[in-house]
Write a structure and sequence with these properties.
Blueprint: H1 2-8, H2 14-21, H3 25-30, H4 32-54, H5 60-69, H6 76-85, E1 124-133, E2 138-146, E3 152-158, H7 163-177, E4 184-187, H8 191-194, H9 196-204, E5 208-211, H10 221-233, H11 243-258, H12 272-284
Parallel strand pairs: 1-4, 4-5
Antiparallel strand pairs: 1-2, 2-3
């Protein structure tokens, strides 16, 4: 019965399906047949994302052809269904699993960084969310970047995509940087950033709230670039067995590789930590 409902309503989330059928999420995933299909579905989504990252202009027919060249036995209807559900249809620099729930009643804020020159540390932070693949499901990464140095100043990985996901990343950033009042916090209009709890914490810290327009990924391009780097240089090179393994590896990449070692062309081919140190040296001279 549960498989019939799933087949008839492919857009329905697993959480909603299990709630309607009166079964637990763990029971659903623990069944051998479901576990096998879930792994295959996740692998297909991941394969499609890789192709779209390399060729952002590909439509579903070209993606289908590319998948077949890689050995996937899929038809274009299934690929179209996945790409439509995951917002992958020829949308450049978009996050690939929908992580923004902007249909909410919370206050929305104007874009404060659109027309200003960012030339100082902790002048503006860029926040966003992406998903990370696990064997049979996904977990979610919230990250905060300093818009000037590109340094990831706060991050948090969670099995749930909720306000606590973004709040933990924010708390890390605030503790590490201790910014002065007037910092601009920029994000999309997702409920995780617009919620009373998150906005209240920003106001408590003296931050100004800025949000990108709905459906305009170019207004958050620095965060999109960070996530693309993370996936191409870390996530896609690993095969995380569980959440804990993903958390350890991603944390190590962010702190020890991305922040301290990776050369950024936009920073004059310096890593963010070195760029910030040079900036502090110049400011003190």
């Amino acid at each position: 019965m549960i498989e019939q409902v799933r087949e008839e309503h492919p857009e329905m989330s697993i959480e909603r399906l299990c709630s309607l059928m009166g079964v637990s999420r763990s029971w659903y995933y623990e069944r051998p047949a479901v576990a096998k299909k879930a792994k295959k579905d996740v692998a297909l989504r991941d394969a499609i994302e890789r192709i779209v990252l390399r060729f952002p202009g590909y439509g579903y027919r070209r993606v289908t052809a590319a998948l077949r060249r890689e050995g996937w036995a899929v038809n274009h209807k299934r690929v179209l269904r996945v790409m439509r559900r995951e917002s992958l249809l020829c949308q450049l620099k978009r996050r690939f699993k929908v992580t923004t729930e902007s249909a909410h009643s919370f206050k929305r804020y104007p874009n404060l960084i659109k027309d200003i020159e960012i030339d100082a540390l902790d002048q503006a932070w860029i926040s966003d969310i992406t998903y990370i693949r696990l064997p049979t499901t996904f977990c979610y990464l919230a990250a905060i970047l300093d818009a000037y140095s590109r340094r990831c100043v706060g991050w948090h990985l969670s099995r749930r995509i909720d306000t606590h996901l973004t709040l933990w990343a924010l708390e890390m950033a605030l503790a590490a940087r201790q910014p002065e009042m007037g910092l601009i916090h920029h994000s999309d209009q997702g409920v995780q950033y617009a919620s009373s709890e998150y906005v209240g914490r920003l106001e408590e810290a003296g931050a100004l709230i800025s949000m990108a327009s709905v459906g305009n990924p170019y207004e958050n391009a620095k965060a999109e670039s960070f996530f693309r780097t993370l996936k191409l240089e870390e996530v896609y090179l690993k095969d995380y067995g569980n959440f804990e393994e993903a958390e350890q590896n991603i944390g190590q990449f962010i702190e020890e590789v991305y922040n301290e070692k990776r050369l950024h062309s936009s920073l004059g081919y310096l890593p963010p930590v070195e760029f910030e140190a040079l900036h502090a040296l110049k400011a003190g001279s």
